[in-house]
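User: Some background: our group keeps a shared notebook of sequences we're curious about, and every so often someone picks one and asks for a predicted structure to add to the entry. Today it's my turn. The entry only has the sequence so far, pasted here. Could you supply the structure so I can complete it?
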Amino acid sequence: MVQQLDLVAQACPLTPALITLLEAAVLLRTTNNKSLSEYLSVSDEAVKSGFRRIGQLLNTHSRSEALLHALLSGWISPKPMIIPCQRGTLSFYAERGHYGEAPENVAH
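Assistant: Of course. Here's the predicted structure to add to the notebook entry:
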């Protein structure tokens, strides 16, 4: 518990650009270089080097660990993911608690 309180009390060592990278990873729910580079309109290499720099600054060993550290520290916040989807797709039904095939009695 004390460790968590210490994390919250720490000043954020990350630049606004690195915070933006972490926020994009939370928003998109991925740390995939290609997905993040397309979303942020930067190169794949910029994403890789950004995560490398974050790891150095936070002394973390993985992207997931860096995200968790930033979330627990309050430097970024979890955001709901809004994905447009169409009726008949798995994600449409999964949001409503249906998994697997679409219910037979639902018109597509």
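Suggested note for the entry: The first helix runs from residue 2 to 9. Residues 88-103 have pLDDT under 50 and may be disordered.
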